[in-house]
Structures are given as C-alpha cells and as structure tokens.
Records
---
Amino acid sequence: MPRRPPTDSVAGVVAARHSDGPAVTAAIDETAFLRAVRVGDVVHVDARITWAGRSSMEVAVKVTADRWDRAVPPTDVATAHLVMVAIDDEGQPRTVPPLLPETDGDRRRYREAEIRREHRLALRRALLDGAEEV
C-alpha cells in the first residue's frame, strides 16, 4: 500500500479532530517546495483548518526543517493547502462544525481560503465542461 505524504497525513488528523470523525482528501492545492530537506534534518509538519463549509474543510500545512549541522532557526521547506471531506460510516459526506475565525490572521486566512475555493470550483467546472466535448 502506498504511503501518504506527511502533508496529507497531518491534514487528515487536523480535519478529523475538527470534524470529530474521519475525513478523506478531496484535493491537494498549491503545494510549494521552497527549499530542500537534507539528510539528517529534523522535519516538522504543522497544520490548521483555514476554512470550513458544510462537509469540507481546507487545511493549510507548513513544513519546516531544523538543520542538523547548524544552530539556526527552522527553515521553511514546503507549504500546501488540502481540502478534506468529513465522511460517515458509509463513506458519505457528513456535516462539520463551522470555523469561527478569532484573530485578524485567522480572518485573513479564511478569506484567502474562500478565494482558493472559488478558483478550485471554477477549474472543476471548466474541466468537467471540457470533458463533455471530448
């Protein structure tokens, strides 16, 4: 069985905790590899819910690395945004709690997530329309 990327695994944990149950990956967005992780580096993966809808959630993931050979601050090495959908025991979408942004940073991330969502939906519509023409 293939291994899940760490961003997907951490996003799944964060989504499951927010929704109080299992969640599956619906989309992986905007993965950016910023710097290389070197052999021996200690990698940290952090994630947070940035947006929640009826059954889906966007999870922002940040990957940092502590350089093994230098006493320097952690280095940002990758970021990603994943869309997770909460599912019930039959694998059907289920309702998730709303996300209530509390800080200015939370509200900014929420607005940015809404923009990404609109772009994803527009792209999906365009791809589906194009598939019908083939």
---
Amino acid sequence: MNSILRKSILGIAGLTVAGGLAAGPLNHDTSTTPVRDAAVTTQAAGKPDTAALIPHGVQGTQSHIDLNDEQTANVKAIIAATKKAGMDERAAVVAIATALQESKLENLGHLGDRNDHDSQGLFQQRPSSGWGTVEQITDPEYSTTAFLKGLKQVDGWRDMPLTKAAQTVQVSAYPDHYAQWEQQAADLVAQHWNS
C-alpha cells in the first residue's frame, strides 16, 4: 500500500477515535454533596502552587494551545463545577487536561461523519453510554460534574499519574494522550482558580 494512502487511512481512523471511546459513567447520579478534598498548597499571592498541581511530574512531551474566549470560559466553568463539587485544584487539573485532549476545550456538538460514535461536549461523553442526554453532556457544568463523579470513584486517583486517572474515567482508545496536557492544565488552574 503506498504511503500516502496508508497515511490517509490512518488519519481517518485517528479522527474516528480521537476523542476516545468514552465508557459510561461509573455512577449515573450527578447530584453532588460537596465534601472538600485536601487543598493544594497555595502561594502567598493566593494562586495554587503549580508544583503542587503536578505532584507526580509531567509525563512526556507537553503540548500547548492558545485559548480563545470560548475555551477560556470553558476552563472557568470546569473550575467552578470542581469547586461546587467540593473538589480541589488537582481535580480541576485532571478535568481540564482531559477536556484539552478530548475537545481542545470546545463544547462540541455532533460532528456528523467526523463524530466518534455519539460523543459530544467538552469531555466527549456519550449519551448511549449513560453519561446523560445530549443537552446535559453539552452543558459544561453537567459534563464536568459527571466527569468528577467518575473521578471520585477511581480508588487512589490522587496517587496516580494524571493520564491513568483520566483514562480510568474516560476509557479512551489513546490512554496516554492525556499526559501531554498536564502542564497547560496546571497553568490554567493556577491562573483562574481564584479569578
């Protein structure tokens, strides 16, 4: 098979599963009872210490994208939902890194032929897998809360590298890809946690 054809086929296959094959949530109930996790150490300026946000260090080469206003608003929505769920800054780092990988922080609707099954929203959650209705999973607060409920059920998630914690919730076809966003996610949490 010639290399151009092979690259085209692999590119199409990659688009098909790029958002990951998200499994259903571990618990369908998305109501929250805030129980504050242990807080991440903060610096004197009131911003979280980025080293504390990355307790296991970053894995591999890190990626970075410039964010537009919509993406920044989605970062703030993820942080607000994390606080509302009673979870700390590290949980926000995991959630934002996951959304960076799954959607580049864009609240994606159905993409037609480019869609990964019926995955939608910031976390590319699937209605057919029990994450919620299309309206729910394309609501940043709801989808973040659903992701965080799954994360809370991952025994020992705090002691795992970010990519393993995210993968346990998301069940992606590309489990190691979450790691590349950890530094940018930590920087975003440090920048917006108290804004």
---
Amino acid sequence: MAKKVLLIAGDAVEALEIYYPYYRLLEEGVEVDIAAPSAKKLNTVVHDFTGWDTYTEKPGYLIEANLAFADVKPEAYDGLIIPGGRAPEYIRLDENVPRIVRHFFEAGKPVGAICHAAQVLEVVRDVLVGREMTAYIACRPSVEGMGAKYITQTLHVDGNLVSGHAWPDLPGFMREFLKLLNR
C-alpha cells in the first residue's frame, strides 16, 4: 500500500516549499493531499534574498488545495509537511489545525516543518517542549517560546521532526523526511 502524506497550507505559502515536497513525494509514489482553510486554488509567493535586510516577496504559481482542514482525517496519513511563507501566521488560527498537527506528534509520524512553519507549531506548543528544531531565523523567538531549543544549523532532525531554515534547504529536508517516512 502506498504511503500518504498531508501538506497543510494557505494563500501566501512559499512556492518552492510547497511545490518541491509535493513533486518529490509524487516522484516516490507517495499519495499527497494539500489541505487549506477551504478547498481552492492557493496563491503561492516567491521569497528571495536579494540584499535587503529581509527577504523579498513576489506572486508565485497557483496550486490546488484539494481538501479543507475541517475534512482532514489525520489518521489516514503517514506523514505531515508544513511549508512556510506567510500562510503559517494565519492557518494556525483555524480551529482544526491543532487537531491535525497534534495527531502526527502523538502518533510519532514524520513531521516536516520548514521556514515559518514554526508558527503553526505554536498551537501545539506542549509537544515541542524539550525538543530541538530549526526554522527561519525570524522564528527563533517562536521556537524558544514553545520551550524548544533553537538549532542554528539549516537542517535538523529530532525524533519524528525534520526542520529546515528555508527553501535552499529543501534537498536535505526532503531526504531526511523520506528516510523517516520509509522506515
């Protein structure tokens, strides 16, 4: 039976951080669903580092979210990936997101969190206490506020949690996530 992975996102999800995992999982024969506040075409954004003190943002491609958070049955999935961008700051407010994310931690299933995904994890902060993770540097206060140790390396694995700084870290991020998924 094929593995099945859930990606949770919303408008302003970082384009590479959703497309790269999506296609990489499909390449491995993994079934993938993308969930968002509602089933719809999501607007992605492209972040880049171009000499500003922070990243720049431009509109990206559209990608279909085929499932609303309210309809997600997390027990049907073998892993979860949370891409970054600006989507995490508002999808964490959806009443279904804590239920979805908590399931993967409590079941010990692989969780991939990249860039600003740490903002989503704040809604299940109790499962992060004492853990180690990395995230985009601006999310360091979020990571430490959850009681987790912020790791400065751009890629880190702690048990079932794979975390990365940003889209340049996607090759290692997906390599480590797939290792956990295929155990």
---
Amino acid sequence: MSVDPDHVRMAEALLFAASEPLDEKTLTARLPEGAEIAAILQTIQEHYQHKGVNLTRLAGKWTFLTAPDLSWMLEEERQTTRRLSRAALETLTIIAYHQPATRAEIEEIRGVGLSRGTMDVLFEAGWIRPRGRRRTPGRPVTYGITEEFLIHFGLDDIKDLPGFDELKAAGLLDSEPSGIFSHLSKEGLDEENDDDQDELDSEEEF
C-alpha cells in the first residue's frame, strides 16, 4: 500500500514541532481521516535513517533525536541534569530492575537504610512513581519507573534495560553495586518482567 506523501509531510511537521514525544493516537487525531500512521512512521524512519537526526521510538512514542554517532557534538549542551549520588544511582537501578519494589526491599538489596532525600531526588527528576500498595501486612507502597525515565535514557520499553556488563562497558558503572545485578541476565530479565506483571495484578492501586 502506497503512502500519501502529504500525510508523510504533515506527520513530519508535527513531530518536528512537538516539544515532547508523540504517540500514534495523537498523530492519528491530527492527520486526515484514513491516514496509515504505521506506514507513515515507517516511511519517515527510513528516510531519516542515515541523516543527522533519526525518528526514534521512546516509551511507545515517537520523536526526532540526534543520530547516535553524532551525539558527542551536543554533549556539553545536554549535560543539564545534576549528577546522581551513588545512593540515588543504586536506588534508581534497583527500582528499574526489580519494580515494583518497596522501600524495605530496596534497603534489603542495598544493605543500608534509604534516606528520604535519596527518594526525593528521584521523584523531583520524574524518574520514579508510586505503583500502589502491596497486599501484605502494613500494605507498603511500591515504586516503579516512569515514562520520563524511559524517554530520558532513550528506552522504548523496560525490557530494553541494559545488563551489568553493558553498563560497565559504557563506563556507567565501575563495579557491580551491592549485588544488584547478581541474578540478572537477558533471559532472567524477561522472566522477571513477567513476574512483575503478575505481582502488579495482585496489588491495590491508590
């Protein structure tokens, strides 16, 4: 099926002008009736595949990003977020890989108490959120990552999270923090995500 060039131009304009990633539902609502959004996005993605910007899917939404091999040119301008402390980095990592996680579970994995300030930093960044209360004694609050986290770190889905070896190779971690990755592998991560969904079904939302 051929794609209407005008529809492609319209979608391209919307994506360029948007201040944040757009989902397919939003794009469809702004395009003429009958526009084949999947084919349109594929056409734009292919057109920009080898250009200075690429059409990228993040957290299920679409946006233009600088081509990965040219990101070094904007490195100075992009360093606007304050550096996370080791405690905040470990806490964020635990929540990302073990969500939904309670405060007690985070402390157990890290082996130390969790300060309120550490969680506040992650909440202020918009990277974590409450996921509900676990149906166990005390009904503790559980935490998980947000759509903003996925977008900030260039991920489309939680399953795209890198393993410890990949993080170390990228220079993001010097050593494995507190055994956080001790049981994780690509296969194990997929299984854990499935388990998390089952666990979420048994939790009570706020």
